[in-house]
Structures are given as structure tokens and as C-alpha cells.
Amino acid sequence: MNQAPRPAGRSISTAAPVTRLIEALHKLPGIGPKSAQRLTYYLLRASAEEARTLAQAVVELKEKIVLCSVCQNVTEVDPCGICSDTQREQSTICVVEEPLDILALERSRQYGGLYHVLHGVVSPMDGVGPEDLKLDELVARLKNGNVSEVIMATNPNLEGEATAMYVSRLLGPMGIRVTRLARGLPTGADLEYADDTTLARALEHRQDV
């Protein structure tokens, strides 16, 4: 005797707004699919006011934050507070990969000069060349002759080292000293995760490139 076929299981349908938010959060760096789901359902349970506050913060971030026309750091006013500070050492520029690196170096309280943000590193594997970085802006800053040293504070990995060497060759004809953070930083680590003491020692014992 033939048994009647079992009814096919119903597929679980997720509301479209929930799915869209999960997908949007999943695109953020460091957010996997499970984390994106947890964050989405947390916001679903949160109050409408909390959700609106978060949404407004994201909108203001995109509408009010610009790049400093001098150092390329993120800022609400142009030029930024660091570039406008006449008490900082004007003859030294510390070159970093990302704006977060400036926060890390400032916490070390070892450096009192200016900064320049490249917004990336030379990485042929990822299709990023020197022309994709804020190097033209760096060279333009050096033409007035006020800067005597450029400190390369790129991360101690293959891409960071390649970028430091490229900048050293680029600035060589200008007669500007190019130094590199000392090896107190562990190879392969990101600058933003280094502790304050390590960063301070790396700055203090920097070496010529």
C-alpha cells in the first residue's frame, strides 16, 4: 500500500526590512552573517528612539565629516584641529595609513608634530597603486621647505614596508629625511592595536629608511 507523500516543509520567510538590514550590516568589516543577524534583532527589540539615534548618527557622519584639505584626516572643520594647532612641531610629518592610526599615536603622547593620512597602502594584489593614495597631497605640503623629516608610520607588514620604501624614493630628490618607526612593533600587526608604550618606543627609536 502506497503511503501518501509528506507535505513539503515550508520555507522560513524573513521580512524584507530585516533581510535588508542583515545584508547591510554583513557588508561592514569584521561583521559576519551571525553577528549581522544578532545586531539586526537587537535593533528590532530596541526602542524606536534608540534606532532613530543610531540612524541619525550614520547620516550625520556622511553629511558632516570631510577630509582635511591639509593632512587628509577626517574632520568636521577644515583644516582639522591638529593642522590648525600652532603649538605642534611644524617641521615633522608622520605618515599613516588610516585616520585610526592618528588616534593610536596621539594616545602615546610621544609625538607632537603633524600628520598625513594616505588612506591605504601600495598593494598590487588588491589593485592599489601609488596613484590611489594621497601622495600628491603629501608632496605638495613639502614644497614650501618647512618640513625636515617625514616619519613613515605604516604598518609593519609587506604592504606597509613597500609603501614606506616607495615614499622614501619619492621624497629622496627633495632632500627630506625619511624615517621609519623602530621594530618595537610586531611584524604583521596593525598600528591601531599597538599599546601606548610600544608606540612611544617605536617613535623614539625610529630609523632612517
The gist of it:
Helices cover 41% and strands 11% of the residues. The protein contains eight helices and seven strands, in the order αααββαβαβαβαβαβ.
Architecture overview:
This protein is of the alpha/beta class. It folds into 2 domains: 16-64, Helicase, Ruva Protein, domain 3 (Orthogonal Bundle); 74-208, Dna Topoisomerase Vi A Subunit, Chain: A, domain 2 (3-Layer(aba) Sandwich), CATH 3.40.1360. Helix content is 41%, strand content 11%. The protein has helices at residues 16-26, 33-45, 48-64, 81-84, 99-108, 135-142, 158-171, 196-204, and strands at residues 66-67, 74-75, 92-96, 114-117, 149-152, 177-180, 207-208. The strands form 2 sheets. A 5-stranded mixed β-sheet has the order 4-3-5-6-7. Strands 1-2 form a two-stranded antiparallel sheet. Strand 3, helix 5 (99-108) and strand 4 (114-117) form a beta-alpha-beta unit. The mean pLDDT is 89.
Number of domains: 2
Task: Please state the CA-atom Rg, rounded to the nearest Å.
Answer: 23 Å
Strand content: 5-15%
CATH architecture of the largest domain: 3-Layer(aba) Sandwich
CATH topology of the largest domain: Dna Topoisomerase Vi A Subunit, Chain: A, domain 2
Shape: elongated
**The CATH class of the largest domain:** Alpha Beta
Walk across the major sheet and give the strand order. 4-3-5-6-7
* Helix coverage percent: 40-55%
Largest sheet: 5 strands, mixed
What integer is the average pLDDT?
Answer: 89
DSSP summary, beta strand count: 7
Low-confidence stretches: none
Helix/strand-derived category reads: alpha/beta
Total helix count? 8
What are the secondary-structure elements, in order, as H or E? HHHEEHEHEHEHEHE
* Multimerization status: single chain
For the termini, the CA-CA separation is 85 Å
